[in-house]
Please model this.
Amino acid sequence: MTPHNEAKPGDYAETVLLPGDPLRAKWIAETFLDNPKQVNAVRNCLGFSGSWKGQPISVQATGMGQPSTAIYVNELLEVYKVKKLIRVGTCGGLNTRVKVRDLVIAMTAATDSSMNNSFAPYTYAPFADYGLLSAAVELSKQRGYNHHVASVVSSDIFYVPDGAKSYGALPDHGVLAVEMEASAIYTLAARFGAKALAICTMTDCLITGDQIDAGQRQTSLKDMVELALDTAIAS
Ligand code: HPA
Model:
C-alpha cells in the first residue's frame, strides 16, 4: 500500500489500462471487464481489476498531467510489479492530416516537463514498446480505423496562448498531436523494465478548431478501449 493507493500486492494484473479520468476508469471496468473489482479509491483516483477474454487486466486512473500520472505509474511499476501499461486518452491535433476521431498511436513522446532534466546534457527520447505498438497498429488496420503512428508531445500546459504555434518547431518535426501523459509513462516504463503504449483519440484540432461531438466521443472511446484491451492480450 502507498500514500496514493490502498490496493494490496497482487490486486493489480500485470497489465493496466490508464485513462486520465477516474469515472472513465469505472466505465471501462464496468463496461468491458468480467468480474470487475475496485482496488483503489484513494483521492477518488479509481482503480479496478477484472478480466478481458479470460486474461487478467486492471484499469487505473492517472489524473491529468505528468506529475499526477507519474505518481500512479511509478507505484504500479515499483510496488505492484505491473509489466504492461496502455494509456487510453485524448489528444489535440497539431497537423491537419490528423482528423477528429482519428487514433494517434504514439511511437515517441517529446515533452516540456522538467521530469526528464536528470538526463541532461542528453535529450532523452521516450519510446513506446514495439510489440504493443505493432499489435495496436495491426488491430487498428484490421478494424479499418484511421490511425497515425506518430510522435506526440506530452505538454505540461493545456491552455496554451497561441494554438499549435505554442509548440514551437515540434509540429514541423513530425509531432502530430499534443496530450499530457505519455512521456512520463514511457520514461517510467523504461526505468522499470516494463512495456508501455499510449493510444489517443484526437478530439480537438488546434489548427482548424474542429472538435469531436458528444455522440462521436462515446463511440470513439469504445473503439479505442477495445483496441487497447485486444492489444494488451495480443502481445
Ligand atoms: N492539449 C493537451 N491535451 C489534450 C488536448 C490539448 O489540446 N486535447 C485533448 N487532450
Observations:
- Residues 62 and 140 are 24 Å apart (CA to CA).
- The chain has five helices and nine strands.
